[in-house]
Amino acid sequence: MMVKLISKDQSQRVLQDVDDPSHTGLKNLLLGAIHKCLGNTKDAIQSFQLAARDEAGRQSNSYVQPYSCYELGCILLESPESVGKGRALLLQAKEDYAGYDFENRLHVRIHSALASLKEVVPQ
């Protein structure tokens, strides 16, 4: 199997061309992940917020909102002034969504993030 690597600009262009409303949340989740990897925190936050608010695609991509809340929460945990909001988003991702693909996997990641937070900031 051959894997073709594409540049960040190419991946963003491909995602920008996705017009199907049922895939808007997924598009924003992927754009957020790209921005996060590139260190564009402001753009990542914006993309994850858009993905988390996407109600139209919830039926076809039910995992998008909890994963977006998780990713957004993890970014917010990095800044002392937004730790509370980040923690709340992690708990929201864990408690407000159920029945989506890889739910158990996300719960493990949330548990790990919350446990590491308790090590840094004793409650």
TrEMBL record:
**InterPro entries named in the record:** IML2/TPR_39
A GO BP term here is:
cilium assembly
Q: Which domain of life is it from?
A: Eukaryota
Q: Which UniProt keywords apply?
A: TPR repeat
The UniProt entry, under PANTHER family, shows:
TETRATRICOPEPTIDE REPEAT PROTEIN 39 FAMILY MEMBER (PTHR31859), TETRATRICOPEPTIDE REPEAT PROTEIN 39C (PTHR31859:SF1)
Protein name in UniProt: Tetratricopeptide repeat protein 39C
Origin organism is Anguilla anguilla
Recall the taxonomic lineage recorded for the source organism: Eukaryota, Metazoa, Chordata, Craniata, Vertebrata
